[in-house]
Amino acid sequence: MRLLVFSVLIGFISGFYLFEKDIQRKIIKSENQKTKFRLSEDELRYFDEITLKNELNSRVKNSPRKYKKDVRIYIYGNPEEYMVREIMDVVSDLNYIIDPIDISLVKNRSESNISVFFGDYNSFISNNLDLIRVQELKSCEGFFTCKSNWSNEITSSRVFINLPNQDGIDDVRDVIREEITQSIGFFNDGTTHPESCFHNDQNKIFEYSDIDIKLIKHLYNE
């Protein structure tokens, strides 16, 4: 019954919340398609730092990875309503920025290519036994992992929001934005640009900064 009620809640909230922004999104997408830009040298360095490196290992990729098909996000575990709304804000923001693909929520995991789990370590690992050797999972606030193919296309991602390790609502909101955005191709934490959602400090970012928008556009719209 809990799962049914939660599924209906997601469907109702997402349908109403995203419908009212649909016209704005189409207008902004139209404007995005007309806008061409180049990253500065500093911005290109930051782009490479975020997309070619990984916070869990020192290996540097030759090319960035990204989704080339529409993204479908499935939420499970024990999220509160404000957490679902925060994901919707992130989805709306990404849809404003990205042209080639659309991002949405789905009710069935079989339809998704990103799954987002809210809960504790033991509950998450029981559904993701292949990650049991990842030591960072127990102490992290948030975690993501991705699979990609030979053409640098991300085919699926998993996101873990470790609720017992959060310091409050703002902390949860910040982690949601960072981990979901990282799971679509921005794999590393940054050491510069503290206004960025990718910065490695707890900077409580609730919207994308100018540098974040530029990086997302550069990966997906160019």
Structural class: alpha/beta
Helix content range of the residues, please?
40-55%
| Uncertain residue segments | none
Number of self-contained structural domains? 1
Give the termini distance in whole angstroms. 45 Å
Determine the CATH topology: Collagenase (Catalytic Domain)
Chain-averaged pLDDT: 88
Please report which band the strand proportion falls in: under 5%, 5-15%, 15-25%, 25-35%, 35-45% or over 45%: 5-15%
Describe the biggest sheet? 5 strands, mixed
What's the architecture in CATH terms? 3-Layer(aba) Sandwich
Overall radius of gyration = 17 Å
Quickly describe the structure.
The protein has 222 residues and is α/β, with parallel strands linked by helices. It has a single domain, classed as 3-Layer(aba) Sandwich (Collagenase (Catalytic Domain)).
Would you spell out the secondary-structure blueprint of this structure?
Elements: H1 2-34, H2 41-51, E1 71-77, H3 81-97, E2 103-106, E3 114-119, H4 121-127, H5 136-139, E4 142-148, E5 154-162, H6 169-182, H7 210-220
Parallel strand pairs: 1-2, 1-3, 3-5
Antiparallel strand pairs: 4-5
Helix pairs in contact: 1-3, 2-7, 3-6
How would you portray this structure in words?
The chain has 222 residues and is α/β, with parallel strands linked by helices. It has a single domain, classed as Collagenase (Catalytic Domain) (3-Layer(aba) Sandwich), CATH 3.40.390. Helix content is 44%, strand content 15%. It has seven helices and five strands. A five-stranded mixed sheet has the order 2-1-3-5-4. Strand 1 (71-77), helix 3 (81-97) and strand 2 (103-106) form a beta-alpha-beta unit.
